[in-house]
User: What shape does this take?
Amino acid sequence: MEESILITGAASGMGRLAARNMAEQGYAVAAIDVNEAGLLETAENHQNIRTFQTDVTDYQAVIEVVEETEAKLGPIKRVYNAAAIMPLGKIIDQDVEIFHRVMAINYSGVVNVSKAVMPKLLERNQGELVNFASIAGWLPTIYMAAYDASKFAVVAFTEVLYHEHRDSNVKIVCVCPPPVRTPLLDQARQTVWPKVFDQGDPIEPDEVLAAIDLGLDRGELFVFPGKSTRTIWRMRRWFPDMIWKNVHKVEQA
Assistant: This one.
C-alpha cells in the first residue's frame, strides 16, 4: 500500500500548500480542519486529497482520523501539525476563554496528533513528524501572550519528544518561522497588529516548507526558516533585555 501524508490546519495557509504539494507528488493526503468549505477548496482538482472535518482538540476524533487514514490511504509517512489560531491583544484586554482556546488548538492539538500517530511511526521505525511552533515560541512580545505561550509549549513538547526517541529512525522536527504570508496574519490584523511585525516582511509559505524538507534531510530538531530568524533566536538567548528594549521602543508601551 502506498504511503500517506496527514496534515492539520489544511483548510488554508501553510496546511493547504503542504496538502497540495504532497498530493502533486503523488501521495494520498488526509487533510484535517474544522473549516469544511476551506477543506473543499484545498482538495479542488486534487483527487488524492481526502478531507476530514475534525477538531484537533478532540483526541478521540483525531485517533479515528489516524486509524481511517492508515486503513484507507496507507501508512502515514509524514505529519504536518499546522493547525493554529492567533488572536492578539493585551492580557488584561483578552477574555480568559481566548487563552484556553489558543492553547487547546495550538498546543493540545499538536499533543493529540503526536500521541495518535507516534506509536504507528515507532512500530514501523520510520516516518516524519513536523510540529509547527514559531519564532514566537522563543521570543515573547507585547500583545502575543496567548500565542507565545502556546508556541513555547510546542517547542518544549517537541524537544522532549525528539530526545525520547532520538535512537529511532522516526524524524521529529519543530519548525519555528517568523511571520509568514498566510491568512493566520489576518487574525492579528483583525485584533491587534504588533508594530514589531513591520520591522520585516513576512516570508512566503513555500520558503517554510522548503526549510522543513532540508531540516528533515539533515536530521535537525529545530528549523528556523527565513534569512534572519536564527539570528533573532540567538539574540533572544544572549541579549533578552536588548530585545525587550526594542519591543518597548517600537510599540511605545
Observations:
- The CA atoms of residues 137 and 156 lie 9 Å apart.
- Strands lie at 4-8, 28-33, 49-53, 76-81, 128-132, 171-175, 222-223.
- The mean pLDDT is 96.
